[in-house]
Amino acid sequence: MSVFINNLEFFYSNLPERYIAADEFLFLKRFMSPFCQELDNYDFIFAEFHKSINPDTATEEFLNYFLYSFFGWGWFPGWFTLERKRSFYRNVATHYARRGTARGIVEFLAEFGVTARVINRALYYDNMILENSSWAISGPLYVVIQIFPMVAGVPENLNYYDEFLFDQDIAIDPQLQITKLDIDELLRFQQPLGQHFIIEEKVAA
Length: 205
Fold this sequence. Notes:
Elements: H1 7-13, H2 17-22, H3 27-53, H4 60-71, H5 82-97, H6 102-111, E1 116-119, E2 123-125, E3 128-130, E4 141-147, E5 159-161, E6 164-166, H7 180-190, E7 195-201
Parallel strand pairs: 4-7
Antiparallel strand pairs: 1-4, 2-3, 5-6
Helix pairs in contact: 1-3, 4-5, 5-6, 6-7
C-alpha cells in the first residue's frame, strides 16, 4: 500500500518561522497550493507506475503503447483478449532474443494460437545430406515450418445459450482465427537473414 505525504503541509510547515508567523491570512499557503497539488499528482503517478509495467496489472492502453513504441509491434487479431496481450507483453523480450530459432518460432506462433513444428536440420536423401551447414554450402538454408490444424479463435469470456451470445458488445464470429496471410506476416518477423521458410500445412487425420 502506497503512503503519500501532503506536499502542501510538508513544505508549508518547513518554511522559516517568520514566514509562517507573517502569513496571518494564509495567503502564502493558498499561493503554494496549486504547485503542491501538482507534486501530489506526480507522487501518485510514480507510486502507481509499477502497476503499469507489471504484466499482471498493465492496462490494454499501456500494452498497446509500450509494445508499439519500444518494439514496433502493433498487430493483434481481433479476438486477442487482454490476458493474451499480457502474456505476449510478458514474453516479448524472450521472443526477440530467440528470434529466428526453432524454439523461438514455435513459441512465438503459440502466442497467437498456432501450433507448429520447425525442421531446421540437414535433410537426408538416400546417402546424401542436403543443405548441410558445412562450408561447402554457399546457398541459403531452408527452414520447414509445419502448421497444424487450428481451432477457431474466440474471446475466452464468450457465453453461448442456444444461438445467442451474452455479455458481448459486438457480434462475434466463432470461426474467426488466424489466416495463412497472418501466419506469413508473423513468420516474416521471425525469418533469419539468408534463410528461406517453407510452410507446410498439415491436415487433420
